[in-house]
Design brief:
The complex is a heterodimer of chains A (795) and B (256). Chain A has 795 residues and is α+β, with helices and mostly antiparallel strands. In chain A, 38% of the residues lie in helices and 21% in strands. Among the domains of chain A are: 3-90, no CATH class; 457-479 and 619-795, PurM-like C-terminal domain (Phosphoribosyl-aminoimidazole Synthetase, Chain A, domain 2, Alpha-Beta Complex). Chain A contains 29 helices and 28 strands. In chain A, a hairpin with a 7-residue loop joins β1 (114-116) and β2. In chain A, α6 runs parallel beside α22 (560-580). The longest helix of chain A has 21 residues, at 560-580. Chain A starts with a helix and ends with a helix. With 256 residues, chain B is of the alpha/beta class. Chain B has one domain: Rossmann fold (3-Layer(aba) Sandwich). In chain B, 23% of the residues lie in helices and 22% in strands. In chain B, β10 (201-205) and β11 form a beta hairpin. Classes of the chains: A alpha+beta (795), B alpha/beta (256).
Chain lengths: 795, 256
């Protein structure tokens, strides 16, 4: 399975072996010892040994730097560690200089609820009443293209372990997905595999899946995006950090055994684009065991409850290399580990392979000698395997031995934190001006724009049946949204809502959003629009937005065009966080998402977390009470560039909708206050697909129709009916207002100076959506169109 | 099991004294997922939920037992096949078959464990469409005389969530005929058979009516704001499943 990547490492040590014992024939190692090991002592004596640093993804300057740091050539095991930890995936070497803005553009006010910021496994936000919440979004893109089921499954597994590592009980997951064209033959492979993997793994953990996204676009054909978000809650006193402190404390590895899976995954798979000319590393995808993960969750929570661990770290990318170096470098001393103590699935693994293995469902912890017995009792109760690897020292060095011989002797900071940082050149692409000048209105694709009532009705139906706007229940029905008994809202509402405290009803709301087309047209504003939409979705549910986690999916940073997109997106996002007053608490960067020289659309997926004092007050996205008034909040401009409508007509050009963050904030306050004071019964944000999509979705939510007249909007905003329906102007929402609350609600909007227009009324008996100027739309027909698309393509 | 969950604990419902005395055990196997939910359902119905651990050698002082949903031991062999051999299961099997006729409810994986244990006939195989399916399911209560259904009316339709991968109930024709003839088909799917189960069977009982198993999840329809009506708006109510838990309390307090 891992023949090629294993081979390159074995070659490395084989070379060293040959140098050490000149009589041994390379490649035919049959000594009593399973393999000769490349010790530190040996490395010091053999400076000229050729090492396969290039095959492990290191550049010449990086290898030279390692030699400089160590003052000698690295051993095979050290090379394995540095190569994975200095990979783009683990070191953020291309993005680090830009990501700093998330930590710099922060006001005191934004920090007040941040208990743990960027840098730990996941940030922690104060919810009040002694509760804290931690959440994070990550990518598992490349593995999910290679092996969709396991790639997506282990994506869930990894992000959930990040959450456990903070001391939290995971309470929900979400999966934003972006695949290739819906009708491309390979899309079905990725779709079936990834959705089954997310379901198969996530459903087995007892975590409700409460939302996400599904976008189809041919730009993702060879680089599907499988992002995974997990959220967990804890009491303040349970917060745990990944550090190894206290000389003499024991280091333990527990959970699944270490096998050959995922070797090379971190450095190779996620850092290089798929290029046919290089040897394939594709089999190096990890395989997940959700049962082992579920047991690990419960077992860790029991450890936390008994305060039995001093520090804890999950094993993800770069496995033991990452866990030992991060724990040691975050602590106050050093660490000594005997690698032969690691329990193995495959006894033939070499030291380098053990250090790089990405076997899933493993955790590393630091335990005081007094707690060893209690720790072992918890392991035994849950039948979890563990092995004591070594202890915390005061040497400041990470020393790893193999049968007592030193094979790694490094300053852990140089592995975990002091990797290379690049100021990659970037420049606004030459093609950007031409793209932005190519507006949809008046283009070839805009010919025959619908205007007559029958044409508009057909257009609305076509929109809600289109791949990106259609119902995603084919996917979400394969996920468990009920387990835990605390799910208060889930897909297709704007945000997922989970109760945290059964006594008070305290809960959290989460939404993830990104629009790759907007970001392609304008990375700075496109990233802001992603944040604005997630923020709006959370506020629409009635929750107060509190924190941001982002998953930045981009092409190769070595392409100055892509690097510019990344730099602009980070600048835009960090600026927008300042305006909206919510900090980024964590996230992940996924680069090299490109096939050949063609990158994906820049896709910063932004997750926003909000807080509800009582989830009973959450606002669903559909109306149901007959006679309630329907209001449109916000104003509509002629903003069709980058829209779903333009996308359906095969056009991508112009400027994305304007991002007015102050207006988003004002809209958010209205939605939150209206929810808290019981002024609205439904709210749905307007985003992709504009008002047309929102009206249909709010009607189909509970199967209750409405009568809509948009003349006031047309007059006020100076747009035609088509534009009013299909424009994607931001900062808008439709709300259902009980008659008894209308005066209070409109007074509030007026007092805040926010545009609001009564556009219709809920009509429960009609079974139709009636829009003046548009032929009557029966809800049955709309539902058939909306829900029929995914089953048609995927069975 | 003595662990208190971080969340999902300590329901606020003040129980009526007579019912609070009824102790309903909820078994946790490694891989069990819906144990906290089942315990919450017991509390919301007014009873006392008692946490039971699969490795326990004794059943202890409980008046009824719930085997909740999940993937016991990962269910990599066959759903429920390993859980059936847990130390506590042999005690539950004995108690269910004893003269005392301990009420036992198996939900989803619990139902699978009950068939593997031969407390209930038949077996569950993969859904006919081969996918995991989570949906709100309408059921008809066919038998309102079991320990877990006395608070329903025969013929009553209820909506509770269904979520499983291996939910297709199968048995030979003779067994199915016998179940029908003896009134042991307790629940039937209405409107849509979500998994290909024979004769639309969603749940069955043993001959005495103290052991009931079903695939859908009544414990996910016990609380306003968190059930099928709130999440999906399909009609019915959020609390159609509560009757399972009040039924057994009624039965226990009423002296069986």
């Amino acid at each position: 399975m891992t023949g090629i990547s294993t081979g390159s490492i074995t070659d490395g040590e084989g070379t060293a072996t040959a140098a050490a014992s000149p009589t041994a024939a390379p490649g035919a190692i049959t000594q009593v010892k399973k393999f000769n090991i490349d010790t530190v002592e040996h490395a010091a004596k053999t400076p000229d040994t050729e090492l396969p640093w290039a095959e492990l993804g290191l550049k010449q300057n990086e290898f030279d730097e390692i030699v400089k740091v160590l003052g000698r050539r690295p051993t095979g095991a050290e090379l394995a560690m540095y190569s994975v930890m200095w990979s783009e995936h683990c070191s953020y070497k291309s993005s680090k200089n830009h990501l700093r803005q998330f930590g710099q553009k922060v006001t005191e006010d934004m920090k007040k609820d941040m208990l743990v910021g960027i840098g730990e496994n996941a940030g922690v936000t104060n919810l009040g009443d002694g509760w804290a919440v931690t959440f994070k979004i990550e990518s598992h893109n490349s593995p999910s293209f290679v092996e969709p089921y396991q790639g997506a499954a282990t994506g869930i597994g990894g992000i959930v372990r990040d959450i456990i590592s903070m001391g939290a009980r995971p309470v929900a997951v979400m999966d934003p997905l972006r695949f290739g064209a819906i009708d491309h033959p390979d899309t079905a492979r990725v779709m079936h595999g990834a959705v089954a993997g997310i379901g198969g793994y996530g459903n087995s953990l007892g975590l409700p899946n409460i939302g996400g996204e599904m976008v189809f676009d041919s730009v993702y054909q060879g680089n599907p995006l499988v992002n995974a978000l997990a959220v967990g809650v804890m009491r303040h006193e349970d917060i745990r950090l990944a550090n190894a402190s206290g000389k003499g404390n024991k280091v333990v590895l527990f959970g699944a055994r270490t096998g050959g899976d995922g070797i090379g995954g971190a450095s190779v798979l996620a850092s290089e684009s798929f290029d046919d000319t290089k040897p394939s590393k594709r089999p190096a995808v990890q395989v997940g065991d959700p049962f082992a993960e579920k047991v690990l969750i419960e077992c860790c929570l029991e450890l936390f409850k008994g305060s039995l661990v001093e520090g804890i770290q999950d094993l993800g990318a770069a496995g033991i290399s990452c866990a030992t170096s991060e724990l040691a470098s975050n602590g106050d001393g050093g660490m000594q580990v005997e690698l032969t103590s690691v329990l193995l699935r495959d006894p033939t693994l070499t030291p380098g392979e053990i250090l790089m293995s990405e076997s899933q469902e493993r955790m590393m912890a630091v335990v005081t000698p007094e707690n060893v017995e209690a720790f072992e009792a918890v392991m035994d109760k849950w039948a979890v395997e563990y092995s004591w690897l070594g202890e915390v020292t005061d040497t400041g060095r990470l020393i790893i031995t193999w049968e007592g011989e030193v094979i790694v002797d490094v300053d852990p900071r140089t592995v975990a934190h002091d990797g290379p940082v690049y100021d990659r050149p970037f420049a606004r692409p030459e093609w950007q001006d031409a793209v932005q000048a190519d507006t949809f209105t008046g283009s070839v694709q805009d010919a025959g724009r619908p205007a007559a009532p029958a044409e508009l009705a057909k257009a609305v139906t076509e929109l809600v049946a289109s791949p990106n706007m259609c119902s995603k229940s084919w996917i979400t029905d394969q996920y468990d949204r009920y387990v835990g008994g605390n799910t208060s809202m889930a897909f297709p509402d704007d945000a997922g809502v989970v109760r945290v405290d059964e006594e008070s009803g305290l809960g959290v709301a989460l939404a993830t959003d990104a629009n790759g087309r907007y970001t392609y047209l304008d990375p700075y504003h496109g990233a802001q629009l992603a944040l604005a939409e997630a923020y709006r979705n959370v506020a629409t549910s009635g929750a107060i937005p509190m924190a941001v986690s982002d998953c930045l999916n981009f092409g190769s940073p070595e392409d100055p065009d892509v690097m510019w997109q990344l730099a602009e997106a980070i600048r835009g996002l960090s600026d927008a966080c300042m305006v909206l007053g919510i900090p980024v608490t964590g996230g992940n960067v996924s680069l090299y998402n490109q096939t050949g020289s063609t990158p994906i659309h820049p896709s910063p997926v932004v997750a926003v977390l909000g807080k509800l004092d009582d989830v009973a007050r959450r606002t669903p996205s559909g109306w149901r009470e007959d006679g309630q008034a329907i209001y449109l909040l916000g104003t509509t401009g002629a903003e069709l560039d980058g829209s779903e409508w333009a996308n359906m007509r095969g056009h991508l050009g112009g400027q994305p909708p304007k991002a007015d963050l102050e207006a988003e904030r004002a809209l958010g306050e209205i939605l939150i206050n209206a929810s808290r004071d019981g002024m609205i019964d439904s709210a749905h944000d307007l985003s992709e697909g504009g008002l047309a999509a929102a009206l249909v979705e709010s009607s189909l939510r509970y199967g209750v129709g409405a009568r809509i007249a948009l003349q006031d909007v047309l007059d006020r905003d100076g747009v035609d009916l088509f534009t009013a329906l299909f424009s994607e102007s931001q900062g808008r929402a439709v709300v259902g207002v009980p008659r008894s609350e209308e005066v209070r609600f409109t007074d509030m909007c007026t007092a805040r100076g926010f545009a609001h227009t009564r556009i219709g009324v809920v009509d429960a008996a009609s079974g139709t959506l009636e829009i003046n100027g548009v032929e009557s739309l029966s809800l049955d027909a709309l539902r058939e169109a909306h829900e029929g698309t995914l089953p048609k393509y995927f069975g | 099991m003595t662990e208190l969950p971080l969340i999902g604990e300590a329901s606020t419902v003040a129980a009526e004294p007579p019912l609070a005395g009824a102790r309903i055990g909820v078994v946790t196997f490694p891989g069990t997922l819906d144990d906290r939910d089942a315990a919450r359902a017991v509390r919301l119905a007014g009873g006392t939920a008692v946490e039971l651990w699969h490795a326990d050698k004794e059943l202890g002082d409980v008046d009824a037992v719930i085997l909740p949903g999940g993937f016991s031991y990962g269910d990599y062999l066959r759903a429920g096949a390993i859980a059936r051999f847990a130390p506590l299961m042999s005690k539950i099997i004995d108690a269910a078959n004893s003269d005392a006729k301990l009420p036992v409810l198996g939900i989803c994986n619990g139902f699978q464990i009950l068939t593997e244990s031969h407390l209930l006939p038949g077996s569950m195989i993969k859904n006919d469409h081969l996918k995991f399916l989570c949906r709100d399911q309408v059921l008809r209560v066919e038998n309102s005389n079991t320990a877990w259904t006395v608070d329903y009316q025969a013929g009553q339709e209820i909506t509770i969530p269904l979520k499983n991968q291996d939910g297709q109930y199968i048995a030979d024709e003779k067994t199915l005929d016998a179940l029908e003839a003896e009134g042991r088909v307790v629940f039937r799917y209405v409107g849509f058979n979500p998994n290909g189960s024979r004769r639309d069977i969603a749940g069955i009982s043993n001959a005495a009516g103290n052991v009931v198993g079903l695939m859908p999840h009544p414990e996910h329809a016990v609380e306003a704001g968190f059930g099928p009506e709130s999440l999906d708006g399909v009609g019915g109510s959020d609390t159609d499943g509560l009757g399972f838990f009040t039924s057994v309390l009624t039965k226990i307090v009423g002296g069986k």
